[in-house]
Target: Sigma-54 interaction domain-containing protein
Amino acid sequence: MGVDLNKQNLLELALKSLQIDVHIVESSSEKEPVIDSDAFVMHATSFKAADKEYTATFVFPKGATLSLLKQFPEYTNMELDLKTILDNCREVIFVSDTSGKALRVSSSWKPLWEKEGKDFFDKGVFQVEKEGVISRSATRLVSERKELVQIVQQTNTGRTLMVTGIPILNDAGEIQRIVSISEDITEISSLQKELNSEKVKNEQLNARLYDETSASIVVNSEDMNNVLQKVFKIADVDSTVLIAGESGVGKEVIANYIHKWGNRANKPFIKINCGSIPENLLESELFGYSKGAFTGALREGKKGLFEAANGGTIFLDEIGEMPPALQVKLLRVLQEQEVTRIGETSPIKIDVRVITATNRNLSEEVQQKRFREDLYYRLNVVPIHIPPLRERKEDILPLVLHFTEEFNRKFLKTKVFSPETITYFYSYSWPGNIRELRNIIERIIVMTDSDYLEPDHLPDLLQRGVGETITTQPMELAIAGSATITSKPRNVAPFETLEVLARHYRKLGITHGEWGVICAIFTYEADEWTFHVSEEELATHLACGTRQIRKWLYSLRKKEMLIVERSWKKTGYNFNLLMEKVRCLEK
Model:
């Protein structure tokens, strides 16, 4: 077939103008052409002619390739999808070659880097890593390991990034591109650190709260919760604290926890009752004395309690009982942080936190000229008032349950108060406050033979404080300052079984708190073993919060002793499961 030379010349000229070359070589004897892969694209194919093998190579510029691709809808749509992703994704997407040269980045790069990533494009990611702009390069790690990596990366701007490096392989299995996806987790990292810090604090707090070597704090009232919040705030500082409250409200317990929760917890905690030591001995006890300072003094002298508390805390109970002459010396100790022993002239420097307590109204004592005004203001830096028990009756039930469990454990008993008996605790004024409550519960547990404690087992002073209404209707709860709560008509059958349950509730793993709520529920209207009452009614009945009621109910459900039946009209608490367990124990 003939060839039109004019058309062949035109074809050669056209290909040349398009910078396209066609090379035809014999496969067995000639080498394929070498091209610049950065500027040109090569496509080769083999064919036979006259019993010989030939290779045709088609070489054309990359620019022409892109121009052709843009005419295909598939390519256009893919570019549009990729651009939309890079412009709108929250994570930073960074595409580079194996040398770390940046090829493409997402728009989210700009707010993360002040220079909009200029150094990454000019210097490459490997050089940026060497200069400390980033802590570790995921791109470098992918290049070295030839696998996907995930690291936490720190930047010189203080950001924390979670970076995933992904290798893109060619047909030969070699890395051709590396894609790094970075997520800014600075806030998450900061929150995690705070959470870990709070966990450590909570663990320390729990260890302190449940330290069996010291008295526990049992609170349910808003007033005492506010007191504890104040204790938490001031524990780690060295401000002087003045704790006020009636005798027996727990001033020493609060002072104990201020010391235990503070940064002086491992240092001495010295306690002294200013009203229990004679005036002529109190000064020497507080400040010490030198050798031969007075008749009867120890030959080698004695260190005072302030010196003994150096580095720690000293608790001065009943500070209102301190004689006026000693008040002057105490003021100087507080102001100068130094003490002078009796018989000496050289002061001794000390570092002591001072906590004081009183059952007097010191402001009135100041007005009556019985307490120094300047000392009062020096002591009253952080005042804490602990209300008497009669003003926070929400704490009575938790305290009764706590002390009952404490003495049951101490004396190996299994005693429990009936719901009727607990109502008597609310009607008494408790002039001796928590100390009196604790002593009475100990006396009842030690002296009573029955495990089920009825109103008759109470001391006369508690029974005298209850009116006829409660003695004739034992399930009514009289609470000072609030309306009397009267239970609904009820079936007496549960109360015949209540004493049986009282003998076994500890064996069943029921806590005193759960036992208290069971007793309260049993006072309400029942259909066989299903009782109808709301959480709010139970909270009022037991003088505690609904949150505590839910906690007890959830615990009983978890122990498979209670089924809660809810409807839009009312809530029922079904104790058939619990009664079945009791019947099994009775057998």
